[in-house]
Amino acid sequence: MSFSGLRERDVRRVAEAVEYVRTTGTREALDAVLPGLDLVRHLEFVHGALLVVAPDVDAAVAELVRLGVRPRDPVPSVVVRDRLAQRLGREDLDVRIVHAVVGGGPRELELFVLCGDFPDVPGDEEHLAFRASTDDEVVLRGLYEHLADAGLMPDGGGYNKHEDVTVLYLRGARRMELTVPGHRETLLRRHLGRPDQARRDLLTLMSGAWRTRSLAVVAELGVPDLLADGPRTTADLARTTGVRADNLGRVLRYLAALGVFAPTRDGWALTATGSLLRGDVEGSQRDLARLYGGLFYRSFGALEHTVRTGESAFTEVFGADPFDHFAAHPADARLFESAMAAGTSFLKIVPTVLDLPAEGVVVDVAGGDGHLLGYVLTGAPGLRGVLFDRPHVMDSARAVLSRFGCADRVSLAPGDFFRDPVPSGGAVYLLSRILHDWDDERCTTILSGIRAAAAPGATLVVVERPVPETHLEELPLAWDVHMMVNNVHGRERTPTEYRALLAANGFHLDEIRPLPLDMAVLVATAV
Ligand SMILES: C[S@@+](CC[C@H](N)C(=O)[O-])C[C@H]1O[C@@H](n2cnc3c(N)ncnc32)[C@H](O)[C@@H]1O
Predict the structure, then answer these.
(1) How many angstroms does the Cα of residue 342 sit away from the middle of ligand 1?
(2) What sequence ranges are listed for the domain O-methyltransferase dimerisation (predicted)?
(3) Quick one: which of 59, 336, 339, 348 could link to 5 by a disulfide (CB 3.0–4.6 Å)?
(4) Last residue of a domain, one of 278, 298, 327
C-alpha cells in the first residue's frame, strides 16, 4: 500500500496514465488504438481512462493531487458500476468517476474508482477517448464506417443525456471511446445492432436448409424461366407448373425476402440473382440449385455419420461413392455434369490467365464434359486436346466439344486415373476441381500418373478453391465440408498444402492466379 491507500500497482498505473495523457497527441493515441488510423483531421484525443481499486474515493483523489493534476469533484458512475456488478457478481458496489485536468489541459484523465477491498479487477475499463470534430451526420457516418472497415469492433455504447453526447466504444489494439455531439439514433443502431441480433443470426443460419430446398424447388419447376419475359402472377405460375397456388406463392414470397424474386403489383419478377436460375442464360445456375437441393441435400443429411465415422455421407445414403453412383445412374450423372458446367462461369476465364503455347497438346485429366477444354481450345487454334475421364462422360463431352466447334481437334480418351496410364505428350495438363475430391494418397496416385506422362518442363494447371492461410473465408470452408460429405476422402487445401503435394510428385508450384468466387489457378511445372 502507498501512503494514499492505493496498491503500489495502481499508484504506478495512475502515474503512467497521467504521463501518457500529458505527453501523447491525437495522432499517437489513434495509432495506439489501431496502427495507421489516420483520422487526426476528424478526431481529437480528449482523455485516457483507467480503473483502480481504492479504500475510498478520497484516497484516489489524494493520489491525483500528489501527481500534480487537478481533480474535479467525483461523480457516481452508473454504467461502469453495473458492468462491474455483473462481472463480480455483486450488487453493492460503489464506483466513482474522477475527472482530472492534466498539464495545462485540455486533455484529461478519467479515473474510475472501485471503492472497497477487492482483488485486482481486469483493465477492461481502460480506454482512450476521442471527440469527433464535426456534427455533420453524413461525415459522422463516413467516419464510423471507416473505423469499422479498419477492423475496430463495436464494444457497447449509448446516449449520455446529461452531456447530450452519443458515446460509442470500439475495440482495436486498445479500447476506444468515440464521443459525438447529440443523440445519434441511426449511428447507435448501426453500432449496437438489433438487440436480438445474435438469435436472429442463428435462426438465419439454422434455416439455411430451407433456402437450399426452396431454391431447388423453384428451379425444378422452372419458375425463373417462366418469368424470363416479365412478371407473372402466382396463380398463372401455379397453373403453368401444375402446383398449388397458395403454397407456391408462399415459397416465392420467402425467396423474395431473400432477394431471389421481386414482388410486383400483382405478381413476381426476377432479380439479378433469380435470373441466374433460368436455364437458358449464360452462366445458368439452375442445375447447380437442383443438385445442391436434391442429391447433395440428401447426402448432407448424413453429415453426422461422416463426422462420427470418417466415411462418406454420400456413400452412406446412396450405397456407392459418387463417381460409381453416377456411372450407374445416367440421369443423376447428366444432372451432375450440367451442374458442374453451371459452376464453370469462372472456367471461361482460366485461359485468359494462362500463358498457353501456340501449338502442342493440352490434356484435360478428368475433364468432365469438356467445358474447360472447349474454352482453352477456342482461344488457341494451334492447340489440340485430349480429354481423359471415365467412359460414361464421353458422350456428354463429345456433345459439348462439338458445340464449342473444336471436337475435330480433341481425342477422347476414356480411362480411370487409378488404373490406366494418363495420356502422354501433353505440353499442358489441366487438372480442374479434381484434387479436392481425394485424400493425399489418392492425389499422389493421380499426380504421379500425370508426372509419368509429362515431359520435364510441361505445365500443370490446377484449378481449385484454396483455403486461405491467414483468415476464415466462407466459400472454401463450405466446400471443404461439402467435399467431406460428398466424396470419399475429399478436402480443400491451403496453398502450402498444394505446394507440398505437388513437390512430392515432381511438380514445382510456380504461381497462384486468382479467379472469381475464391477460385484460383495454380500453375506448376514438371521438374
Ligand atoms: C468435379 S468433376 C470436374 C470436372 C472438370 N475437370 C471440371 O472442372 O469441370 C470430377 C471429374 O472427375 C472424374 N473422375 C472421377 N473419378 C475418376 C477416375 N477414377 N478416373 C478419371 N476421372 C475420374 C469424374 O468423372 C468427373 O468428371
Answers:
(1) 15
(2) 204-277
(3) 59
(4) 278
**Secondary structure class of 366 (helix, strand, coil):** coil
Q: Is residue 416 lining ligand 1, measured as CB closer than 6 Å?
A: yes
Atom of ligand 1 nearest to the CA of 371: 9
Q: Is the CB of 393 under 6 A from ligand 1?
A: yes
Atom of ligand 1 nearest to the CA of 344: 9
Same domain, 376 and 518: yes
Are 342 and 287 a contacting pair, CB within 8 Å? yes
| Residue 434 Cβ contacting ligand 1 at under 6 Å | yes
Asked whether 340 and 326 are in contact (CB, 8 A), the reply is: no
Query: Into how many domains does the chain fold?
Result: 3
What's the CA-to-centroid distance between 277 and ligand 1, angstroms? Answer: 24
The ligand 1 atom nearest the CA atom of 417 = 20
ipTM: 0.99
Is residue 392 part of the annotated active site? The answer reads no
Same-domain status, 243 and 143: no
Cell numbers standing for residue 290: 437442383
Q: Which three cell numbers stand for residue 173?
A: 489494439
Same domain membership, residue 240 and residue 142: no
Beta strand segments in 83-144, E: 94-101, 108-115, 127-132
Residue type at 51?
L
In the chain, the N- to C-terminal Cα span, in Å, equals: 71
Specify the CATH number for the domain of residue 17.
Answer: 3.10.180.10
Tell whether 101 and 234 lie within a shared domain: no
Report field, pTM of the whole predicted structure over 0.80: no
Q: Which domain holds residue 220?
A: 204-278
Contacts of residue 472, defined as CB under 8 A and 6 or more positions apart, other chains included, come to none
Ligand 1 neighbour 418 (Cβ under 6 A): yes
326 inside domain: no
From ligand 1's centre to the CA of 368, what distance in Å? 5
Decide which of 234, 261, 278 is a domain's last residue: 278
Q: Is residue 322 a part of any domain in this protein?
A: no
Q: Is residue 169 located within the same domain as residue 249?
A: no
Taking the centre of ligand 1 as the mean of its atom positions, its distance from the CA of residue 390, in whole angstroms, is 7
Determine which one of 42, 371, 436, 471 is catalytic: 436
pLDDT, one tens digit for every residue, the chain (527 residues): 555 678 888 899 999 999 999 999 999 999 999 988 889 999 999 999 999 999 999 999 999 999 889 899 999 887 788 878 877 777 788 999 999 999 777 899 999 999 988 876 655 689 999 999 888 999 999 999 999 888 898 888 888 888 888 999 998 889 999 999 999 998 998 898 876 777 888 999 999 999 999 999 999 999 999 999 999 999 999 999 999 999 999 999 999 999 999 999 889 999 999 999 999 998 899 999 999 999 999 999 999 999 999 999 999 999 999 989 999 999 999 999 888 877 677 788 999 999 999 999 999 999 998 999 999 999 899 999 999 999 999 999 999 999 999 999 999 999 999 999 999 999 999 999 999 999 999 999 999 999 999 999 999 999 999 999 988 889 999 999 999 999 868 999 999 999 999 999 999 999 999 998 899 999 999 99
Residues 256, 117 within the same domain: no
**471 CB-near residues (< 8 Å, 6+ apart):** none
CATH number of the domain where residue 360 is located = 3.40.50.150
- Residue 397 shares a structural domain with residue 447: yes
Ligand 1 pocket, residue 432 CB under 6 Å: yes
